[in-house]
């Protein structure tokens, strides 16, 4: 039968035909050259031959559906690194957050408090689960949830809060927990940017009842797209396993605990294919290298840009004592938004990739439709327009970083 819908390339077809006749082995698949940036890109993922081998081996196993061998081993590795009992890989952090909110079984009218300075997924998951979003402000040093504003926003219907790790730096979890005054409110940590970071020796994402991680291509550990849901609670794990498997007890069936699997709850499909686990395992193998190179680059930025801070031209990021960053982002704050916009254009003219970050969610069309107003989160409103992220990734060479630093000095001189 003729191939419906696609044609093998002629070279490969010939090689396969030859190998069927006992001839030459199939041709090696050509490796395309990676795209070349004309200057210094904002980001380069840390993919290498080890990752390539991991993916090929997984594919060759002939079984790449979700929850295969690679997913199991990657989940065990993550559980070991995070010192937490329960890990479920998901297709993204967005999905992990949705799974988290479904696991909490939000009721209509339940409120979830989260910073306005975050990615849309931290808020979408609440709305999708039928809850109400309440935005709180951030503190100006770590740009994470402000415990004082959190305390002000708490209400009788507060069901959960979502503290967000920013730039690899944890929010002040002690102050946040204290602000809850012992009420049974779930803490769901959005640790999308947090793998490898800790708060007073506790890995971020494991301090609340649920934590969610991202392995998106921009993150320190990348599987292209990917995420993880982690929980310390056995009951949340059992519920999440069912929701993640389309609302069925398939997991119990596979473990031989029930003789057929059936629909037992509302659910969705939050399993990534097994090669996500394969790539994650290979990325985690490089964690010492990733941690060290990022930290070195980060410290060099801090040190070399200090004169600009001392002259009052920029603010530099702050890592409070007791908090171990994973150095996910290095950002500077300019005096105002027009200066930031001119800086973006200046870096672009030098072929240096930079990026601003979150727009205040409470001022987005959805935020305004939820009844939010300008002035609700003043620190978020001020920071968002002034922040610029600089290139920071393990393959950034010292000479390249020097060019970025020199460009910032030159810009601020002009
Ligand atoms: C704070 C935060 N939460 C959630 C996400 C969503 O992660 P993912 O792309 O894996 O869905 C991101 C993405 O960058 C993020 O920064």
Structure description:
The protein is α/β, with parallel strands linked by helices. It has 15 helices and 12 strands. It has helices spanning 10-20, 49-60, 69-82, 93-104, 120-128, 147-153, 173-179, 234-244, 250-254, 274-285, 287-310, 337-349, 365-369, 378-384, 398-413; strands at 86-90, 111-115, 132-136, 158-161, 186-190, 198-199, 202-203, 210-214, 227-231, 323-324, 330-333, 387-390. The chain has a 7-stranded mixed sheet, sandwiched between helices. Strands 7-6-10 form a 3-stranded antiparallel sheet, with no helix packed on it. The chain has a two-stranded antiparallel ribbon with strand order 11-12. Strand 2, helix 5 and strand 3 form a beta-alpha-beta unit. The termini are far apart. Bound molecules: pyridoxal-5'-phosphate. Pyridoxal-5'-phosphate binds at residues 92-94, 118-119, 121-122, 164, 190, 192-193, 214, 216, 227.
How would the blueprint of this fold be written?
Layout: H1 10-20, H2 49-60, H3 69-82, E1 86-90, H4 93-104, E2 111-115, H5 120-128, E3 132-136, H6 147-153, E4 158-161, H7 173-179, E5 186-190, E6 198-199, E7 202-203, E8 210-214, E9 227-231, H8 234-244, H9 250-254, H10 274-285, H11 287-310, E10 323-324, E11 330-333, H12 337-349, H13 365-369, H14 378-384, E12 387-390, H15 398-413
Parallel strand pairs: 2-3, 2-4, 4-5, 5-8
Antiparallel strand pairs: 1-9, 6-7, 6-10, 8-9, 11-12
Bound molecules: pyridoxal-5'-phosphate.
